[in-house]
Write a structure and sequence with these properties.
By secondary structure, this protein is α+β, with helices and mostly antiparallel strands. Helix content is 46%, strand content 24%. It contains four helices and three strands. A three-stranded antiparallel beta sheet has the order 1-3-2. Helix 2 packs across helix 3. It is globular and about 30 Å long. The protein starts with a helix and ends with a helix.
Length: 80
């Protein structure tokens, strides 16, 4: 299921809104609590970026964003 979530995230562009747990649950035929549980693991493993909302002043994990592309070229260009 985690692979399927990551596949959905790779289809997102920077213009898209974050994939919410409910959106992912509908796309994958799962429940939102299951997606939320898997999402926490993906964020902890560094495979996805968290998307938060404020609910009554409390920051709450609400969805996922894909990890940004790493910038290896500037590092390599800085080497002699």
């Amino acid at each position: 299921m985690e692979v399927q979530i990551l596949q959905v995230l790779t289809t997102l562009t920077s213009a898209d809104r974050p994939a919410t747990f409910n959106d992912l649950a509908r796309r994958l035929g799962a429940t939102a609590p299951l997606i939320a549980s898997l999402a926490r693991g993906l964020v902890a493993d560094g495979l996805a970026q968290p998307s938060y909302v404020d609910v009554h002043g409390v920051r709450t994990l609400h969805g996922l964003l894909p990890q940004p592309a790493t910038a290896a070229a500037p590092v390599a260009a800085a080497l002699p």
